[in-house]
User: What shape does this take?
Amino acid sequence: MNKIHIGINLEFVRHQDKSFEWGVAKAAELGYTRIEPMVHWGRELLSEAGYFHSVSMLDDPLRIKRACAKYGVKLSGLSTHTPITKPEIGVEYLKQAIRFAAECGAPVVNTDEGPKQPWTTQAEDFVLMRYTLMEAAKVAEPRKILIGLECHQQYSKVPAGLDRIYNLVKSPAIGINFDTGNAYLAGQDPYRWLERVVGRLVHLHAKDISIQHSQAERGKVTGTPVGCACGDGVIDWARVIKICRRAKRDLVFSVECGTVEQADRSIKHLKRLLA
Assistant: This one.
């Protein structure tokens, strides 16, 4: 049986106005053993001032590795979302993210197709995505970095669409980063969809959706940045765990919630179920 580790996306400290290092320390304090930092291009005022958790890929990747070592956590992956339908952005962004991940020790980079250009056809979009993913895979394969394709936008909001993106490039570097909350909000059955991709999973975004959020947006959106605390919403985590036990590799449930308090409740709930 594979192992399931509990991690957290550092989005949980977004509204704390604190630095990346503060977020790593808080995740460790709450008991998380894995973290998923967000990275960005260039320089960004709030991050540079220590008021935001995202890390510039112009920084030394060892900054991330040192913080993890200091607080005793590992990396589940990097949040490197870039529109792969826009190769003028996606190709170089993903290639840099993969090299950055290799040096800081992150096994996975997560992304999705991004918002659609209003002037391209669907057929054109899939050609553009194939180009971007082929370029990224050629950088990822020799570095043993995995690319996690997430259900998050107009094409990947349905199982067949995510499969079509996944099948664009035949590469051992390409897998699925399944997001339970995005799948649910898109109007899909998240458990049937998870069963469909479990053999291709490289990472999982553990996102729960509150009843109020569900009533307001289910079937109207393709995803959401963060959810509520795991256990407070509509997702049956015992069922998710049971399905993920059939995965071909060890997995990290990277919790995606909006506050420190939700992160605390999430890990307590998931630990009880995994125990």
About this structure: The chain has one domain: 4-274. The two ends are 14 Å apart (CA to CA). The longest helix spans residues 122-143. The chain has a mean pLDDT of 97.
